[in-house]
Amino acid sequence: MSVDTKTPMFERVALIGIGLIGSSLARVIRREGLARTIVVSTRRAETLARARELGLGDVYEQEAGKAVEGADLVVVSVPVGSSGAVAEAIGAHLKPGAIVSDVGSVKADVVRQMSPHLPPYVRFIPAHPVAGTEHSGPDAGFAELFENRWCIVTPPAGADEAAVETLVAFWRACGSKVETMTPEHHDMVLAITSHIPHLIAYNIVGTAADLETVTESEVIKFSAGGFRDFTRIAASDPTMWRDVFLHNKDAVLEMLGRFIEDLFVLQRAIRFGDGETLFRHFTETRAIRRGILDIGQDTAAPDFGRVPKKD
Ligand code: NAP
Question: Which of 91, 163, 210, 252 has the fewest CB atoms nearer than 10 Å to its CB?
């Protein structure tokens, strides 16, 4: 029997929220031996019981305040609209010097919500792993979720350098590539690369559902024509995405304005038979897709690498 002599990066990690992201973290922390003790906390007894059944942690604690006691790293993985309330619940219980982080898809507003509740003797370094699926809950997580995906670390002004370095090393150990930027810049970038695409997906699937001239069975039957890929995104968690739009309002509205202007250009080109504009536009967008494949952020396999379902 081999004895693992690796020293864990943290003695005690507390995971507050154990859904898709929290449970993926629990799994990869365990696999990589990044913590001696993993404390799992979540608000509902049923979710905590499920986490225990799955063996995601070493200690299970429903009360977030109790869960963070003595932890060197605390990662909050709850919908962004709840991050302030969680910070309030844990603030007084945090160990001096602890690194407090989160995984929220919005950063500036999470900093605004959490900072007032965190004592000056902890080191608050927010982050966002740009990795996910449309599934939720502790069963949905998997250790490989962060593999080769970006994690954006957004240290507030004056953040402790050593804590930033530790958090960056932690995410690298989870398999991520890491980039650092301000919370505000993060929110602008993610508005166009993630939030607006989700809004478009939610909208197009809703529009198709409302059409009177096309039957529902036709929408489902012919979905492989492009619609199906939107339906996957539009199946994402309603609570999470409601919170993303409410808490990244300014950046989303700014990007939505630009998107609508550009859509009008395409609409005009179609109306006036301006094939040159359409062709030029589609050629440019194709290059973006190639760029994504080149850096390994997707697969070029036919049908996006989906395995055809056998009837
Ligand atoms: P999830 O699977 O739905 O899990 C949510 C977790 O938060 C559960 O433990 C849930 O607890 C808890 N929770 C829900 N509402 C809460 C509240 N009002 N107060 C306290 N705890 C609450 O969600 P997720 O996909 O892991 O997302 C968690 C965070 O990661 C979000 O901020 C999201 O923006 C971010 N994120 C998500 C993705 C993605 O693709 N899903 C990707 C990157 C980042 P109970 O089950 O006990 O109620």
Answer: 210
Query: Could you tell me where the DSSP H helices lie in 196-248?
Result: 196-210, 216-221, 227-234, 238-247
Q: Locate the ligand 1 atom nearest the alpha carbon of residue 21 and give its number.
A: 26
Query: Per-residue pLDDT for 295 more than 50?
Result: yes
In angstroms, how far is CA 207 from the centroid of its own chain? 26
What is the Cα 18 distance to its own chain's centre? Answer: 13
Pocket test for ligand 1, best of 15, 28, 43 (most atoms within 8 A of CB): 43
Question: Same domain, yes or no, for 133 and 209?
Answer: no
Please give the residue range of the domain that contains residue 152.
10-181
Residue 208, in any domain of the structure: yes
Which residue's CA lies nearest to atom 10 of ligand 1? 17
Answer yes or no: is 3 within a domain.
no
Mean residue pLDDT of the chain comes to: 93
Domain CATH for 130: 3.40.50.720
Which residue out of 27, 28, 42 has the highest number of ligand 1 atoms within 8 Å of its CB and is therefore the one to mutate?
42
Return d(Cα 132, Cα 249) in angstroms, integer.
Answer: 21
For 66-95, write each residue's pLDDT tens digit: 999 999 999 999 999 999 999 999 999 999
Who lines ligand 1 at CB under 6 A? 17-22, 42-44, 47, 77-80, 82, 86, 103-105, 128-129, 132-133, 136-137, 237, 240, 244
Strand pairing class (73-76; 10-16): parallel
Verify that 15 and 126 share a domain, yes or no: yes
> Does 120 share its domain with 230?
no
Same domain, 171 and 197: no
Closest to 110 in 3D by CA, of 66, 62, 76? 76
